[in-house]
What we know:
Structural class: mainly alpha
CATH class of the domain at 1-72: Mainly Alpha
Amino acid sequence: MQTDEDVGKVAAAVPVLISRALELFVETFMKDVNRVVEARGAKTITPGHLKRCIHAEPRFDFLKEVASDVPDLQGDTDEKEPSSSSSVGLDAAATSGSQEATSGRPAGRMQRQLSTPRPR
Length: 120
């Protein structure tokens, strides 16, 4: 941004503030998506879950056009996916041991990994 003559100079704090705002947006959006996924009994987040969340929350109205091409979710609950090595979603039983071994914490809770700017 600083090398583009049309933009001009940017204060050092601006990229930090934009990054933090994006982190907070993604955190809020994914918490709402997680509620949709849990309500449907799914183990894998799909584009349909994102679309349902976008249409259910008025604050995400600006994303409706982006999600318009995504197919709607079918049925009241998600069907259980057959286990295969090509599946993106992993169930908790398959990942709990490796997650505990690598992170030192029990599986099932997401660790908050947000960077917070430190005051100078």
